[in-house]
Amino acid sequence: MLHYLSTQLTSLQRYNLLSGSLIPRPIAWVTSQAPNGSGPVNLAPFSYFSTMPSDIPLLTLAIGRRLDGRPKDTAQNILTSEEAVIHLVDQAHLTQMNQTAATLPANQSELSLADFKTQPSRSVSVPSLIGPKVRFETTLYQTVPVQNHEDQIVTDLFILEVTDFYFAEEVLDQKTMHVNATALDPVGRLAGPTYTGLGDLTTLIRPK
């Protein structure tokens, strides 16, 4: 096997190896806003996103900082408003999602990039998108400022608590409370500009 010490690699090479190996990754399509609606609604996708085992419904979202050390708009909004809405990306919204990855001035909303429609949320003040099959209203549970070896904050790691769950009727079996992955038709992030669909499914019963 090919072997590399981390110290032999540049930061970009390390990033490429990790992001290209940990695939596919689910995509959090996040709406956020400054407190009291004082700024535009921000909409952006992030693939360093997961959940964690807990009796509390928690999601994790890691957002890298800008080169000058400032938080990105989504991170700044979550830090100050302590809330966000996370939508899962399905195949029908892949192109729209990609549009919102553009870098815009802080005073311009990504909602202006396409025909996005929003609706009021129930438990948080930031609005939700109309269209995605699954979304979670969340509040900030914990923030972990991740520092590099020079003690500079390089990533904001957010642990978010889900307050409200929303599922399109065709996605959720209300009797079993199981999500139909095929109906969800999720998009996964690979490396660079490459994405993937659900692909082949395999069912295996765990041994006792």
UniProtKB/TrEMBL annotation:
The keyword Flavoprotein applies. Keywords: Flavoprotein, FMN. Coiled coil: none annotated. Pfam families: Flavin_Reduct. Its cofactor is FMN. GO terms for molecular function: FMN binding; oxidoreductase activity, acting on the CH-NH group of donors, NAD or NADP as acceptor. Residues 20-177 form the Flavin reductase like domain. PANTHER family: FLAVIN REDUCTASE LIKE DOMAIN-CONTAINING PROTEIN, FLAVOPROTEIN OXYGENASE. Belongs to the flavoredoxin family. This is Flavin reductase like domain-containing protein. It comes from Secundilactobacillus kimchicus JCM 15530.
